[in-house]
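Name: LysR family transcriptional regulator
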Amino acid sequence: MPRNPINIEVLEVLDAIDRRGSFAKAAEEMNKATSAVSYAVQKLEDQLDIAVFQRQGRRSVLTPAGRLILAEGRGILQSTARLANMAIEVATGWEPRINVAVESHQSYPVFFTQLREFLEEHPTVEIDICESVLNGGWDALEQGRVDLIVGSPGPVPLQKGYRTIPLLPSELVPVIACDHVLAGLVAKPEALAAALPKVRRVITHDTSVVDIARSAGLGSEQQSFYVQNIDQKVEAILAGIGVGHLPRERIQQQLDKGALIALDLTDRSDRENFLAWKISNKGKGLKALTGRLSAVLGKKR
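Structure predicted for LysR family transcriptional regulator:
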């Protein structure tokens, strides 16, 4: 099989000629003789048996075939540059990818803002996000499916080799839809307390695969309606299917508009949650990311 005449060096030559507008200026940028640049183009044309440039007055412009080579070639140049940077970072302790499980109750705007700023500083690191609920984050961390969990609730599993940082608590508010059949009892605490055990509760599935799944919130004697994530839980409660706890920061707008009504229950509380990773994970990317997240989301002492 004949050797492919299109290589990184000739792609760099074509790119420089196109950007600078002439063979001479391209040669100057690349610190080459003009004859060397011309030879590289001529060799490519001879080996492919096509014209890459054509004369238009005093200028050499790309032919349609030349434009195709350059357009695709610039993608190759970008990929090879990125590959080189990734190889350097991996060799110096920077992992190419960080898998993160974020608890469904977490504040997404704050979380993703921090990820954007992290990626602006470290563009070669890939981030893979999944959502976890209750024990699901600890399960994913133990099984090695993720490198970092953000906002997973306590208690912290013991003797697992985890490094943990307490995060700001999530305020979970028990709510009911304004048009639910029992919404009129909100102003009647005794009647509400008597009726509530018969009201269906909306529950987000624990994403744990190995550990025992758990639930949190209202009493277990109620009928249940299960959903996969907090967005579904919000919509299910708004539709009047049942009641449940939701993070205030995710529903403040609905509370302000009166679409959801907070229930005055004695079990309303702030839930302890954590940032956690395995102590054995020494990646520099993980260290930088956890430092950024803990500075913004961590509990102030």
